[in-house]
Amino acid sequence: MLILAVNPGWKGQEFISSTWRRLEALKQRIETLGLHTLVALDGGITRENIRQVAASGADIIVSGSAVFDGKNAPENAEFMLGALRSVAKTKWQ
């Protein structure tokens, strides 16, 4: 399942805060139904919120502008991956 955290149509939008409620409701519904469903979160994922997004329980995180806007995509990607790893390491300790 994909949850879009912005209004569709254009890049660079801010993460919509009501997404957290929608994500939690979806995760609860999946659990209630006993499903094995991956949940993806897309839109408004930035350097500033990647740790909160990673801790949210989404299985897949899509980040375009935070990685590819600007001149240093490899450095941006490494930052985002490092943030994900730090949250994952904390969650599993």
Helix coverage percent:
40-55%
Oligomer: single chain
CATH top level class name: Alpha Beta
Number of strands: 3
Q: Judging by the overall fold, what is the CATH architecture?
A: Alpha-Beta Barrel
How many domains? 1
Cα(first) to Cα(last) distance is 27 Å
Number of helices: 4
CATH topology: TIM Barrel
Strand arrangement in the largest pleated sheet: 1-2-3
Global Rg: 14 Å
What do these coordinates show?
With 93 residues, this protein is mostly helical. It has one domain (2-91): Alpha-Beta Barrel (TIM Barrel). 47% of the residues lie in helices and 10% in strands. The chain has four helices and three strands. The protein has helices at 19-33, 50-55, 65-68, 73-91, and strands at residues 2-4, 40-42, 60-62. A three-stranded parallel beta sheet has the order 1-2-3, covered by helices on one side. β1, α1 and β2 form a beta-alpha-beta unit. The protein starts with a strand and ends with a helix. The mean pLDDT is 91.
Write the layout of secondary structure elements.
Elements: E1 2-4, H1 19-33, E2 40-42, H2 50-55, E3 60-62, H3 65-68, H4 73-91
Parallel strand pairs: 1-2, 2-3
Quick recap of the structure?
With 93 residues, this protein is mainly α. The chain contains four helices and three strands, in the order βαβαβαα.
What brief labels describe this structure?
TIM Barrel, globular, mainly alpha, 3-stranded parallel beta sheet
